[in-house]
Design brief:
mainly alpha; globular
Length: 186
């Protein structure tokens, strides 16, 4: 059985109550989780960063293993949820660091042609999170596309499969989401 099918099978077993299935799956997804974590840490900026790749993966694992009732669709769905958990961890960490500073204006963040430009520091993480929260209120599917493409590092094809939609829809949504976020972050 190939790794993708095995991951999906183990996720379904976990959903059905097999607690050990998640632990058996971790070696199959660990490197991809590390890749997602590396990407998110790089986009968040290193200055003042208190979490490294391994710590972020471990924190995400601890959150995901405790989640009950998630009807995992496949590995793409898992990685999208994983990216969302990592984003929340980084946002919480940034909030703690930002609260410690007691103030300071938010730093404007811009969008690159393909991805959000990485300035650095907790202000950027918080600005992106606030913008993504606003996007989610405006259109949840656009926010899911950003999570898959930007935070999970998925291709357009992987995003389409994870969100159970067409490739063309993902391409249009990615364009709309970037335009919306540009305006929100300006």
């Amino acid at each position: 059985m190939d790794a993708s099918r095995e991951i999906t099978r183990l996720l379904q077993r976990h959903h059905q109550g097999d607690r050990d299935a998640f632990d058996r799956m971790v070696p199959l997804v660990y490197e991809r989780m590390r890749g997602i974590a590396r990407g998110q840490i790089a986009r968040a900026g290193r200055r003042g960063q208190t979490l490294d790749t391994t710590a972020l993966v471990q924190e995400a694992y601890l959150q995901l293993v405790e989640v009950d009732g998630v009807d995992w669709q496949d590995r793409g769905h898992f990685f999208a949820i994983c990216a969302r958990a990592m984003r929340r961890i980084l946002v919480d960490d940034a909030r703690r660091r930002h609260a410690a500073k007691r103030g300071g204006d938010a730093v404007p963040v811009t969008l690159d042609a393909d991805v959000l430009a990485a300035e650095s520091g907790s202000e950027q993480v918080l600005a992106i999170n606030d913008a993504l929260t606003g996007l989610e209120a405006f259109n949840e599917r656009l926010a899911r596309v950003v999570e898959c493409r930007y935070f999970a590092g998925m291709t357009e094809e992987e995003t389409a499969r994870a969100l159970d939609t067409s490739l063309r829809t993902v391409q249009r949504d990615w364009m709309r989401a970037r335009a919306w976020l540009l305006k929100a972050l300006a």
